[in-house]
Amino acid sequence: MTNTLLKLEQINTYIDQFHILQNVNFEVKSGEVTVLLGRNGAGKTTTLRSIMGLNSALSGQIVYKDEDITKLPAYKIAKKGIGYVPEDQGIFYDLTVGENMRVGMRQEDEATKDRMEWVLELFPDLKKFWKKPGGQLSGGQKQMLSIARSYVNDNDLLLIDEPSKGLAPVIVEKVIESIEKMKEKTTVVLVEQNFYMASRLGDSFFILDDGMTVHQGDMKELRENEELKRKYLGIA
Amino acid sequence: MDLFINLAINGIATGMLIFLIACGLTLIFGLMDVLNFAHGGIFAWGAFVGVWGYSVTQNFLISIVLAVIAGLLIGLITEYLIIRPVYGNHIQQILITLGFMLVLSEFIKVVFGPNILAAQKPPFLQDYWLVGDVTIIKYRAFTIVVGFIIFVAIMAVLKYTKIGLIVRAGVMDKEMIQALGVNIRLVFIGVFMVGSALAALGGALFAPSSGVAYAEMGMEFGIFAFIVVIIGGMGSVPGSLIAALLVGLSNVFMAYYVPSLAMAVTMILMFLVLIFRPEGLFKVSGVSNK
Amino acid sequence: MIKTLQKSTWVYLFTGLMLVLLPFFKDERWFLFLMIQIFVFGIFAMSYDLLLGYTGIVSFGHAMFFGVGAYSVAITLDRFEPSFMSLLLGIVIAMAVGGLIAFIAGILTLRLKSHYYAMLTLALANLFLVLAEKWRSLTKGNDGFTFQIPELPGGLEDHRNMVIYLFCLVSMVVIFFGLKRLTESPLGKILVAIRENEQRVVSLGYKIMPYKVIISVISGVVASFAGVLYAISIRFVDTSVFAIDMTLDALLMTIIGGVGTLVGPIIGAGIIEFAHHYLSELSDVHWIFERWIILFGILYILVVIFFPSGIVGTINHKLATRKQRKKEDEQSDKLAS
């Protein structure tokens, strides 16, 4: 119990009149990368948004570090040390790369500056485009910026939504490497369709289908379970 | 030439006053997606508080400060009582803020009496300078300087300070900025108060330049400000400056050469923008006009 | 459903009949005049409600249709001899011009967010105001002008106010039922759907622009007609018909009476006109009554926040829930026995 960082219990979330999440349960252990898998429209993004407080759950409980955060507003949840990399990357287009990073900093202290340096070593490209508006970056650069922005804070949990989407394999590799490095420092919940990426990074997994958690286990188990993969992920 | 320069200065001074109302409006719209039709009412309040403050204290600076404080307070009240219940509903926003505009205007008559107040310029701004053949009215020069300082200050805050970046980011993506740990509600209130204070400042500067303060000026200049915001592009501060100067200059020149068309020219500018470039001269990404 | 509709229709017709008989009992000039104002503004406010309540369009320049109507008929009657032909011509011009302006404003801004329409109409109304002030040869500027209306045949001329009263009343009733038909027609249903969820209507394959423009035109035509009646009833016209206050009156009436109901605006018109009349008289008692618009402004704000459907909408809602509850009670009674 002690190493459970985040726990979702019987989460129900509506968007307008649509019942998107139906009694979702799952648990994230400290220091692990937990992968959320499932088809398009299964409710993966909504799950992250519910944790983040962007689509608050109507019923159920989200417990983070033994504290109920279900009904908290998004900014309070972020301040508790949760970083969010949304599916659309959430880059502020008119702000430069540097300004995007600065807006993302919750504090501007020494520790943050140190982390900033570390992040820039991880993504040297960002330094090169420091003064370029976020809207003019390529898809891969946007993704890196979004991830970098979440690394700059002292987060204990990162929620990353489909970082490989639409990216070239070389860049996917880079993103994987960065998450591998970040894994040493924080816990990660990763939504991913790309099974290669999921299986390289994941320690454990949950499969969502039609807004319900239908399967969970160790990543190792999933790698060998061909039937499960075929049934829920459409991978032969 | 003499005349031309004089008209130009007059036009720029008028434009700067309009800019002071419009920039608050454009920021409030860009960040909060709120159309505040009561904004002009705050302008009128600024004018009356300024005139009253000057008549009581005989100190121009104090009267301006009083007007700005009044603007901050009315802004806070407006946000809290009027805007908060109707976030996200454009039609209700338009309706309710227009109603509040009526109440603000009528309340001026209750507090300051139903009559037009005469406004004085402070002694040190009453005369003019003679530069060659050109006479420059001090108060107009003063207005231009103040407007320009405010513009530079707003741009600097938006560009270089953290809070400015947050405001700009919030205009583009409200959700993400919250997910980064920013309480956007507090930022909203702050922007709303500052925007209102700028409108009040505009009113306090306007009254001495025209010599009068009257309750209906709120509606009149509120409309001007809206037109400026539409021409300049909703949410864009430089856009509202350019548009305000454009409107100010065209009005002054038209009023001199073709007086009957002075009002019409502003409207025609807006028509052209609406037909050919509905997003305004300066488009801000993330702010849609659909 | 049909039964209740019929019931309400009977209520409306009965009320209309009572109003027809009213002037035979109380025919003081000021009272007839007040009632005529209510009918005129009732029509004006209904045309406003058609936009706001049924389509979700906010117009801040509705006064321009009203003013165009008033000036069209006034100028025609002034320029030509005051015959019924000129009157008819004036009405036709009024409605045609009103419709045309609404059409132009509609195609320019209805594709954009709601406030663009509000702003454009506001600006247009302002242009008309300036035009009326400056085009002195036609409008006589700020002073306005009086004009003759056609003489009525026979003994009716002695009861001219009564005739105008009845004419305005009949117009209001006819327009009311006409608009009611319109809003209950398939077109009306689409409009309400647009107001509720524009995206969904679009995704169902409807082009919404034509519908919005059509309703904008109908509303403009009806508002122009209200302006015509206004000018005829006071036989005078000046630039105040283009003033923003006219639009604000229509807005107050519609909101306080109840948006999206058609009866609401008429009731709103009654309340505002009566309040205008009596509260202004009370200003000797307390100064606040002279500033009665404050009271209405505050009332209006409260209505927008707490009763967004106005007086009639709220009552309808209450009735509906009560009926529903009654039904449920009956059912549970049945189940119990």
Automatic annotation (TrEMBL), chain A:
The lineage of its organism: Bacteria, Bacillati, Bacillota, Bacilli, Bacillales. Keywords: Amino-acid transport, ATP-binding, Nucleotide-binding, Transport. SMART domains: AAA. Belongs to the ABC transporter superfamily. SUPFAM superfamilies: P-loop containing nucleoside triphosphate hydrolases (SSF52540). InterPro entries: AAA+_ATPase, ABC_transporter-like_ATP-bd, ABC_transporter-like_CS, BCAA_Transport_ATP-bd_LivF, P-loop_NTPase. GO terms for biological process: L-amino acid transport. This is Branched-chain amino acid transport system ATP-binding protein. PANTHER family: ABC TRANSPORTER ATP-BINDING PROTEIN, HIGH-AFFINITY BRANCHED-CHAIN AMINO ACID TRANSPORT ATP-BINDING PROTEIN LIVF. It holds the Pfam family ABC_tran. Residues 6-235 form the ABC transporter domain. It comes from Tenuibacillus multivorans. GO terms for molecular function: ATP binding; ATP hydrolysis activity; branched-chain amino acid transmembrane transporter activity.
UniProtKB/TrEMBL annotation, chain B:
Pfam families: BPD_transp_2. The keyword Transmembrane applies. It is a multi-pass membrane protein. GO terms for molecular function: transmembrane transporter activity. Keywords: Amino-acid transport, Cell membrane, Membrane, Transmembrane, Transmembrane helix, Transport. Coiled coil: none annotated. One of its GO terms (cellular component) is plasma membrane. Its main location: membrane. It comes from the Bacteria. This is Branched-chain amino acid transport system permease protein.
TrEMBL record, chain C:
InterPro entries: ABC_transp_permease, LivM-like. The keyword Transmembrane helix applies. It is found in: Cell membrane. One of its GO terms (molecular function) is branched-chain amino acid transmembrane transporter activity. The chain crosses the membrane at residues 6-25, 30-48, 54-75, 87-108, 114-132, 162-179, 213-238, 250-272, 292-315. GO terms for cellular component: plasma membrane. CDD domains: TM_PBP1_LivM_like. It comes from the Bacteria. It is a multi-pass membrane protein. Keywords: Cell membrane, Membrane, Transmembrane, Transmembrane helix. This is Branched-chain amino acid transport system permease protein. It comes from Tenuibacillus multivorans.
